[in-house]
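Researcher: I'm preparing a figure for a lab meeting and need a structural model of a single chain. I don't have an experimental structure, so a prediction will have to do for now. The sequence is pasted below. Please return the structure as C-alpha cells so I can convert it later.
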Amino acid sequence: MNDTIFILRFSALGDVAMTIPPVYAVARANPACRFVYFTKAGFSGLFVDAPSNLKVIGLDDIGPLHVYRRLRKEIRLHKPALIADLHNVSRTWLTDLYAMLHGIRVGCVNKRRLFRHSALKRKSGQRNFIDRYLDVFTESGLETSRANMDTLPPMASPPVPIRQPAVGIAPFARFHTKTYPLDKMEEVIASLTKNNVNVYLFGAGGKEQKQLDEWSHKYPCCHSMAGRYTLQEEMSAIQSLPLMLSMDSANQHIASLVGTKVITIWGATTPLCGFAPFRQSSDNSIVAGIPCQPCSIAGSRLCPEGHFDCMHSIEPNHIVDKILHELSLVNNTETRQ
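Model: Understood. Here is the structure written out cell by cell.
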C-alpha cells in the first residue's frame, strides 16, 4: 500500500507557519508514512528541523495553472494515498478533483465559510485553525496527538547580537483594519527607547522597510531588520528575543513557532476568529473589546463603521506598560534561575 501523503498550503506566510506544529506532530506519529508538503518557494525556510519523513517542495508562484500542472505530474509519479488540502481554495480544488477522479482520498481543512457571517454577527468564537489542520489528518485515519505539537528547537545564532532588554516589533499587517496606526506605534517605540529598551523592527521590503529604517535612524536603540536577512535568519533573531509585539499577522505565528512570547494587537479581527497564536496566553492579546469587534474573519481594507475605534481606542502607553511588565517578568525569572 502506498504510504505517501501530499500536503498543500501555499499562502499566506502566517497560515503556513500555523500548519507546522500539527504537520510535524503527524509526521513523527506516523514514521512509516512519507509526507510531501507543497508550498510557495519563499516559505520553505519556515520548515526548520523537519522530521526525516517530511519533504518540503517550494513552488515558484507563477500562476495556479502552472502549480496545478506540477501537482498533477507529482500525483501521476508518486500516486499518493492522501491529499491533505490545508488551503481549501480555488487554486487547490482542481488538484483535489483530479486526485479524486483517480481514486485518491482528499481531506480538506474546514473553513466553515457558510457560518462566518453568523459567527461575526453573534461574536461567537471559532475553532483555532491549528486544531482544524490536525483534524484533516485525524479524519483521514492517521495517528495524531495534540499533546505532541511543539515549538521549534533552538536555531543558529541570530545574524546580529540581541542587546537586552529587548523587544521585537512587527507593526504591519496585510490589511489596514489589522494594523495599529503608525503614528501611535511610533509613540510606543519612542517611549520604549526612552526606557532603554532595545527595539528590533521586522517587516517586508519596499514601503515597510523605508518606514522601519526611518524609525531606526530617528530613535536610539532601535534597529531595523527589514530587507537585510533571510527568513531563517529573522526567525533566529526572533527566537533570541524575550518578547515580540505584533499585529494579527505572520510575525505573531512565527514568534509562536520559535517559542517566543508574543503580545498581539487586534483590530477588525480578534482571537475569536480562530487565528490565535500557538501556545500563547490570552492575557497577551490586546483587544479593545468594542461591540463591533470582530467585524471580519481575516481583515478588510476599510473599517465598515468608518471610525476604526478598535485600534484608535488602544493608547500607546497601555502597550508600553504591557511590554515593560512582561520584560520585567522575564528578567525576574532569569535572576531566580
